[in-house]
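Treating backbone geometry as a discrete language has practical consequences that deserve illustration. In the encoding step, the backbone of a single protein was reduced to a row of integers, each denoting a local shape. The amino acid sequence and the backbone structure tokens for this protein are reproduced below.
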Amino acid sequence: MCELFGLSSRVPTTVSLSVRLLARRGSHASGLGDGWGVAYHMGDDALVAKQPGPADASPWIDFLAGQPIRSRIVVSHIRHATQGEVSLRNTQPFMRELGGRMHVFAHNGRLSGIERRFAGGSRRFRPVGTTDSEVAFCALLERLAPLWDAGTPSPEQRLREVADVAATLRALGPANFLYADGELLVAHAHRRTQRDGSIAPPGLWMLHRSCAVDPDALASAGVTLDGGQLVTLFASVPLTEEPWQPLREGEIAVARDGVGERGG
């Protein structure tokens, strides 16, 4: 099963991730999946490190965990392949340029028939790989492109388009995703394979943390943050004993500068 993790912070913070520990904390499937990736937004650009294959076999995991990378938005994905071969081109997060900045996307679920649903609709953005997730990302960017071509759209304009595309995706299958444009971190929750084998909500959980919370609380889940500041976290499952909030089926939440808001 795929696992998602996202972070939005008030100011750039040193974020160190151990994808190996994240996978062990979040997944009840055997092994650590068919690929892993982490995206760190840095202003209008983003650093993406990703690799196909299990995290346990990758020497990059320990290297990445030890790097003092500072970012305000982080998106991580751990893959269990349901469509497309195990390869770099099918490993998430995906990244594309739009409006002079990098946009990042990671998805959990399987969207049956998405190629037919959006056939002929991707003129500017085309998949490099063969996953339903990348088709969904390209479709989302196609919808957002007219807004960004006219300038920097308001958060409300962006969220309306994201919500409309998300509604279409939900009709095709589980559609949990994280999307970041360098300013906003958007989480869409749907259904997910639960520990009892059922496919049901919640698909994502949300947590708002402040400096009053133990900064080491996330260490066992593979996440290390420096200092105390406002952060909002999203994850496929709760990573700590703190009061994580399950997002409702079809709910979209957005975080900016570490402050998260739940929506419809």
Summary: The chain has a mean pLDDT of 86. The first helix runs from residue 19 to 26.
